[in-house]
Design a protein that fits this description.
alpha+beta; 22% helix
């Protein structure tokens, strides 16, 4: 009889403690909502983006694009997907500043190695060295418009654009300047 009473007391305590667990609030309604909060919401071309040389000489070899993808909180995040970079001649005082398309590059971030290749852990940004595909760099002392389009794995496109200027003489660009 004493054992039966003890069993009922232990059983009642277990039921009471289990009932208390049901009142614990959920952290997030579902996994999709939680992942959506941390997913990329915009891409931002950073002002460190410059026309530059990738070797020791002064001749510009391409554009060093510094790109920061951010989540809804404005914090940097890593991304996977396709990136399309386009360089246009700049049309001043125009409703559409994109002139003639001068260059096109694409990069795919599909694996962890792809992400590690371009991600700067210290700066929390991507850096993409984009070499000229048309041979010589564009005309110096002019403005250009760089656009980046990011195609997410869930088929959404995010875009940003940035004005660049190649502030060099033609001799500096071609490496024929006197030293």
């Amino acid at each position: 009889m004493k054992t039966t009473t003890q069993m009922r007391i232990v059983g009642g305590l277990l039921l009471a403690s289990l009932g208390g667990c049901a009142t614990t609030p959920k952290v997030s309604p579902d996994a999709g909502t939680a992942l959506g909060m941390l997913a990329v919401r915009s891409i931002q071309i950073q002002p460190f983006t410059k026309i530059r040389s990738f070797d020791a000489d002064a001749t510009p070899d391409g554009i060093g694009v510094v790109l920061r993808p951010v989540d809804q909180f404005g914090d940097p995040v890593k991304i996977m997907g396709h990136l399309y970079f386009e360089l246009y001649a700049y049309r001043p005082a125009s409703g559409e500043p994109k002139g003639e398309r001068l260059e096109f590059w694409d990069r795919t971030l599909a694996t962890a190695d792809d992400v590690k290749l371009y991600w700067d852990r210290t700066a929390q940004m991507y850096e993409f060295p984009l070499a000229w595909t048309q041979g010589l760099p564009p005309t110096p002392s002019r403005k250009y418009l760089l656009t980046v389009s990011y195609r997410t794995p869930w088929d959404e496109t995010l875009e940003d654009q940035y004005e660049l200027e190649l502030a060099m003489t033609r001799e500096q660009v071609t490496g024929t300047a006197e030293r």
